[in-house]
Amino acid sequence: MTQHFDLILRQGNLLDGPEHAVDLAIQDGVIAAIAPHLDAIAAQDLDISGCLISPPFVESHIHLDSALTAGDPRWNESGTLFEGIEIWAERKRNLSLEDVKRRALEALKLQASHGVLFVRTHADVSEPSLTPLKALLEVRDRVKDWMTVQVVAFPQDGMYGHAQNEALLEEALRLGADVVGGIPHYELTREDGVRSVHRIFELAEQYERPIDIHCDETDDPQSRFLEVVAACALRRNLGPRVTASHTTAFASYDNAYAFKLMGLLRRSQINLIANPLINLTLQGRGDTYPKRRGITRVKELWQQGLNVSLGHDCIQDPWYNLGNGNPLDVAHLAIHACQMTGREEIRACYDMVTDRGLHTLGLPATKLVEGDAATLIVLAAPNVFEVIRNRSPVRLSVVRGRVVLARSPALVRWSANFLT
Ligand code: FE2
Q: What is the domain range of residue 296?
């Protein structure tokens, strides 16, 4: 008897699957069958020969509340982190729920168009109205059928920068923020920075939330809050639920300290997120030459077996006026800037925008096997190497068996005069 399925993807190449192409059948939101050739029919039957079936992309670090505001109220002409924070302080006086929701939704759709189906966004909780947080929580719930979103309560101006900021952070957790954030290197003093990390861990335990801290996003080799984060995680046995984002100062530490720190990180098993697009442009601004790249030690952290993922951080905002939400741009740049051009290293950078990102988000890996949830993307190239090299477009996004979006292949037609 002929089998019936909801959807069959014909002759795609399965990431980590067999050498040959396969047919993949989906029924009731689950991968129901994988075989070289399925003698079956489906409501939707798609030929994807020459394409890669992959776990979806994961955006593990983005600021959706500031996305798509570049140039408003003014451009960041110095290109520095600190001018960006100043501009954002001006822009956020005029935030409304509708403004944040509209831009966040637009940015999420842009990301989805590149195959992103999981996002961790930071929400600035330094304003008494908590408008960014409330807007992003609403958006999180609104898009849940096609995008999984986690919202980090992020005290952009420092937990102790203003008297009310600590209370605002806690209020954000009460309102439903998924993750506790922080920015110790931006606190007024080193002591405030250390105190903020300890307070973040207390709040995380009290409200049972994971942690994601903007940590040492500076070229200052004396900025050493990563060791505080790792030590707190180790002592409280919270490693996999803790993430340190950016950690760009790690690129400026001398090796004697960096090696000691690496040992502590290995023991703590925390996650790390690098944001190469933005940190390559923000950092090193005070240098002449040699000029630092300002990207944390991605390759070395990965070599030590630590979980590293890659984020976009910004899409057209006061810190970065470029960006289109495509994780393949991030992975491609990381391969260059972190000198990870070996085949295994290229594959590792791909994993840093897929399953390693899921690990950071505390979510199970995508298995792409029979019985697993049918949440996957199809990319217009036969393997990871070609996908990265060409930044191949997403042909299809599927969430729990439902097609979220499909893209027709682009066609290039040469004029007859130029064919020889
Ligand atoms: Fe960030």
A: 57-360
Any idea what the CATH number is for the domain that residue 375 is in? Answer: 2.30.40.10
User: Could you read off the pLDDT of 147-186 as tens digits, one per residue?
Assistant: 999 999 999 999 999 999 999 999 999 999 999 999 999 9
Residue 112 Cα to ligand 1 midpoint, Å, equals 20
Please tell me whether residues 187 and 261 are part of one structural domain: yes
Q: How far is the CA of 54 from the centre of ligand 1 (A)?
A: 27
Ligand 1 is an ion; its neighbours by CB within 5 Å are 313
How far apart are the CA of 180 and the centre of ligand 1, in A?
Answer: 13
To the question of pTM greater than 0.90 for the whole model, the response is: yes
pLDDT one-digit tens code per residue, 398-417: 999 999 999 998 888 889 88
Could you tell me the sign of the dihedral formed by the alpha carbons of 47, 49, 50, 52, in that order? positive
Q: Which residues 6+ apart lie within 8 Å of 148 measured at CB?
A: 117, 118, 119, 361, 363
C-alpha of residue 319 to centroid of ligand 1, in Å: 9
pLDDT (tens digit, 9 = 90+) per residue, 375-398? 999 999 999 999 999 999 999 999
Element (H, E) at 9: strand 3-14
The residues carrying an active-site annotation are: 217
First to last CA, the chain: 52
